[in-house]
Amino acid sequence: MQLGYAARWEALFNEHVSRGLLPGRVIRSDRGSALVATARDEVRATPSTRLLKRATGALDLPAVGDWVALLAPDDLDIPLVEAVLDRTSAIVRGDPGRSSDVQVLAANVDIVFVIHPIAEAPNLRRIERELSLAWDSGARPVVVLTKADLSADAEAAHRRVQEVALGVDVVVTNALTGEGIGPLVDFIEDDRTAVLIGASGAGKSTLVNALLGQDRQATREVRMSDGRGRHTTVARELIAIPSGGVLIDTPGLRALGLTGSEDGIASAFPDIEQLAHSCRFRDCGHVDEPGCAVLDALESGALPQDRLDSFHKLTREAQVAAAKTDARLRAQEERKSKTISKAAKEYHRRLGRR
To answer: Which domain holds residue 74?
Structure first.
């Protein structure tokens, strides 16, 4: 089966072996079902009733990259996913609307390739957002700059991105000529799993084809006026590559809402986090507080205004998401309490009739 199946996962499956369950990895997830690769073959499976009852939301259901325990006897028409093994990492985005729901884009990834085209000037603010999401997953982010052949000055674009992608490898690629592909292969050797995230038309499918050495993923032309295109990849999919690593391709992402965690933001802005240690107040918001080292850096020109604005914007978004999540959890507890209270009253009412 491979697909990143290592000793850790084999050990975690031990408790399920006695129940006659099979190990498998989700290679594609659709509404209500998942395509799962096992040692024998690929099967279409659905979550079991037991798993659905235990789940508190989409976060607890199978996603691409998950390792799952399957009930798949010969007399069962559709195999059942009985359990989802604890994830080592997960790319999770928040709902950009009013909902507090989150969506797992990919699970158990080691590397997050943040794909960004440089046919035009790079969008540094989007890269900061994507890096926040990537760092928060628990995986290692790598920024991949695509379409270098269409860039007016690829080296200048590289330098600009490096200025905001602190502590992150930034690789310039041209998938059509093979430039920069070798370093990407090195990142996912030894059966590591990498996920590609980026906007539609960023060049993800072309990059996947280059890493595979074949035209597996369909590609489309983008508009020359703005470098944008329609979704080529229509579903998240796990793909094994010849070097032994695993890729998870994703459709182009227009909205990348953050979750309630601020850890990823802190990792994406290490310069601001380092300055914050010198602020007079531990809970300094870096807005107008006296003795703020961040504002001092802003005034001296050491910290760009647009980078601080981006930090504030992402932090506020994460805080709003956290508040929505807290409200949802309170509502769940209230519904649970009401259900228990109603059941208790019904029990005592029936008991009184005897």
So the answer is: 7-84
